[in-house]
Every structure is written in structure tokens, then in C-alpha cells.
Amino acid sequence: MENSESPATSADLAALWEEMRELEVKVEARFQQFAKHVESLFDRMGPQIVATVYRLGDAAPMRITGPSARQPVVKERLSALEARLLE
């Protein structure tokens, strides 16, 4: 369809339809690549999330209960926080 003033022919519409189908195939392929990439990220991050939650659960019971136990517990909690930050 070279002249915008002339009406579209069936060949013009067929060409446009074919272009739209090719674009749809390209978009679908890109979407599949994106979905696979996101899935691989989740596969890699899953164990890290579980490990982090487990470490947080380990740190939760550490409480400062009395003056005699205060210093060792504080040091233990600080070392747990430091280990998490370094990871």
C-alpha cells in the first residue's frame, strides 16, 4: 500500500496480517525466554531464601535474659548479625 489515498487491497491486508503474525511469534518467543529466565532466578534464589529464614529463626530465640548472661548473648547476637551482613 504505497499511496495512502488509495483503498487497501486484499493483498495489502494479507501482507499486514502476515506482519502481525510474525510479530506475534517474536513476542511469544521473547516472553518464553523471559519466563525461563525468571524461573531460573527463582530456582537459584529459593535455597538462599530458605537458608536466610532459617538463620533468622536461629537468631530469634537469643534474648537478653539476665545480667550474668547479658554480655555473651549480646556478643553472640552481634556475631550472628555480622555473619548475615557478610553473606
Task: Give the gist of this structure.
The protein is mostly helical and 87 residues long. It is built from two helices and no strands.
Structural notes for this entry:
This protein is mostly helical and 87 residues long. 80% of the residues lie in helices and 0% in strands. It has two helices and no strands. The chain starts with 9 loop residues before the first helix and ends with a helix. The model has no long low-confidence stretch (mean pLDDT 81).
Fraction in helix: over 70%
How many domains? 1
The biggest beta sheet, please?
none
| Cα gyration radius (Å) | 30 Å
Strand content: under 5%
Indicate the low-confidence ranges by residue numbers. none
Structural class: mainly alpha
The secondary-structure element order is: HH
Shape: rod-shaped
Distance between the termini: 61 Å
The mean pLDDT is: 81
Instruction: Tell me the number of helical segments per DSSP (H or I, 4 or more residues long).
Output: 2
Count the beta strands: 0
